[in-house]
Q: What sequence folds into this?
């Protein structure tokens, strides 16, 4: 299967130095995901709050990038496949590390 949403990939500037919602609520994350449509930074599905997936559900922005650590891969939520990204977004950092405490 291939992704048909490559036109949604943009050059973005990450909006925060960590998961936007976790930073506001005092939550924690395992890894970060960057929305390649708008620059929203959310936590991965291994994190308690799964904010990257929640962002997709709310906005329908289809493509995320593995952002922390920089992982160089993309994922399409709609087609449920890894996608080739045209570039890798530089981190706005340093990004604080959060662990369950």
A:
């Amino acid at each position: 299967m291939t992704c048909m949403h490559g036109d949604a990939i943009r050059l973005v500037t990450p909006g925060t130095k960590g998961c936007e919602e976790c930073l506001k609520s005092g939550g924690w994350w395992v890894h970060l995901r960057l929305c390649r449509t708008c620059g929203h930074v959310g936590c991965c599905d291994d994190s308690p709050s799964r904010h990257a997936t929640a962002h997709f559900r709310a906005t329908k922005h289809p493509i995320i990038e593995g952002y922390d650590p920089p992982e160089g891969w993309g994922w399409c939520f709609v087609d449920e496949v890894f996608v080739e990204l045209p570039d890798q977004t530089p981190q706005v950092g340093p990004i604080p590390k959060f662990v369950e405490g």
